[in-house]
Amino acid sequence: MIRDASKKIEYGWRWLTACGAGLLVIANIVLIWQYTFIPFQDHPSHLLREKVVLHYDNPRYDFSSHFDLNIKPVPNILSDICVVLLGYIVPLHTASKIFYSLYIVLFPLAYLWFLRGISKEKSAYALLAVFFTYSYYACMGNENFLLSLILFFFLWGIVVRNELIQSVRWQWLIFVFAVLLYFAHMFTFYIALVSMPFYCFVRYGLRRCLIVFCHFILPVVLFFVWQSHEGGTVGLKEGGFKQMLITRQKLEVLISSFSPYLNCNSSRIMYGAGGALLVLVAAGMRFRDKTVSAGSITFLVIFLHLFFPTTFMFYGPDQRAVFLAVLFGGILIPSAGWIRMTFVTALIAGSAVSFSINRGYFRDTNAEMRPIVAALSKIPPARSVLPVVFPPYVWNFFSHRIFEYYHILSGGMNPYHFFTSSNIVKYKTEQESLSLFNTDPSYYPPELLKRYDVVTVIGDTRDTAVRNFIGYLRERGFGRVEVRSATVNAFSMREK
Q: What is the pLDDT of residue 197?
């Protein structure tokens, strides 16, 4: 009787957990569709790259005069390709929202697939992925990294299943997903390249390690082909191999990076504390069973970036590694009933609170973005624009690159696009090196201003610094007002 009652309680708890996770996923999707704009920092840059690809030869936007399409095997482009393909069927903004909706659904499912490969008792911890759906990287608009998380954990779900990894059909799937992971995000690909063969060596031996490693050879070759054509970020043409392994410098980056965890939001504190805990747990483990051998890679995941080639050093690479380590922490959490119930309850409650906070963020930022985008849309189309963004807009996630919406709507170009040899779109001619964070008028000499059709000032006109900059533009001949509003003022020269 007691055993039957406990089974019923366990069964009911699993259904409640599944229903709670499903409701949270649906709520997160509704959030994307409820509001016009997705207020993530790099999202406008992704939208613009996708718009350029979709309308490259459209004279209305004049994209072909300023940009080239990059047809080389460039990593970190898969999210743009996915949205472009959807963009041939539905409008671009709708396509982008479909992409985010798929991410919200597939990220927890891929993580669940991985956890069930370790132990079915760990399934409830897939709520970690729901909790981290709107992570720091989502707010940054790192869409390729978000996509790579799905591929990464789906790959891991295959690797930890011995019966699948022996199948020829699944071997082909590992190869396909390894290639897709390369095109999704180079950092995550590199983690997979080293950690998956490492796991297979610990768990199954050298032969299985080599088999899995072979699936990553083609993406590695593609990487060096790209580097040989472009010089890339490693700088192979300039003897970059000598600078590939600056471990001391990267160790300093790791140490200094923990200060943001002490000064920023609770999620980053969790990354730091969780990562440190996992290091201690992994360091004291021996490779005795499947869970332990898989858990041991958390140590590798965290410290692997110390030995990365410099091309993999993004902004805060340690944060991405710790983020992955925290997700791997799901396999190290004990599966005892009361521990699982406590942890799952905390995750559901935390996810609900996070949704409430995010909903307020979407609502407030959309209210601020609407008049700014409306004002930008009034600038004459297909112009070369020099945007000058004042605080606090330059610091906020939602407004840091809001000027890109002009080009999404009307075409043209500016010098701050994320269009390089590392993207699906690049400039035809290299742009001058300018800082978006510099609002000192002396930073913009007349010869620089005259290269652009329009100078757009984004900032509160009640701010003295904004008014002084507008006065400086008028003194330099930019006296024709194209747009005037409380936050957006655009000027062109009377005669050019």
A: 85
Q: For residue 317, is pLDDT > 90? A: no
Closest-CA residue to 161 (of 212, 206, 207, 216): 212
Structural contact between residues 35 and 391, judged by C-beta atoms closer than 8 angstroms: no
Partner residues linked to 386 by β-bridges: 455
Six-digit token pair at 477? Answer: 């001949």
Q: What is the pTM of this model?
A: 0.86
Cα-Cα-Cα-Cα torsion 362, 365, 367, 372, nearest 10 degrees, comes to: -140
C-alpha atoms less than 13 angstroms from C-alpha of 59 in its C-beta half-sphere = 0
Q: Which two tokens stand for residue 274?
A: 């969780």
Chain segment 346-368, per-residue pLDDT in tens: 889 989 998 999 999 999 999 99
Q: DSSP assignment, residue 242?
A: G
In degrees rounded to 5, what are phi and psi of residue 61?
-100, -20
Report phi then psi at 244, rounded to 5: -75, -30
Using one digit for the tens of pLDDT, what is the confidence trace for 371-406?
999 999 999 999 999 999 999 999 998 999 999 999
- Residue 47 makes CB contacts below 8 A (sequence gap 6+) with 92, 93, 96, 404, 408
For residue 5, count CB atoms less than 10 angstroms from its CB and return exposed for 0-12, middle for 13-18, buried for 19 or more. exposed
Strands of 266-424 (E only): list them. 385-389
DSSP code for 334: -
Cα(309)–Cα(249) distance, rounded to whole angstroms?
A: 12
Handedness of CA 425, 431, 435, 440 (dihedral sign): negative
State the residue for tokens 């009361």. 338
Q: Can you tell me the mean pLDDT for 285-297?
A: 56
Burial class from Cβ neighbours inside 10 Å (0-12, 13-18, 19+) for residue 399 reads: buried
Residue identified by tokens 């973005």 is 369
Q: Are 348 and 332 in contact (CB under 8 A)?
A: no
CA 206 to chain centre: 34
Residue 113: CA count within 13 A, CB half-sphere? 18
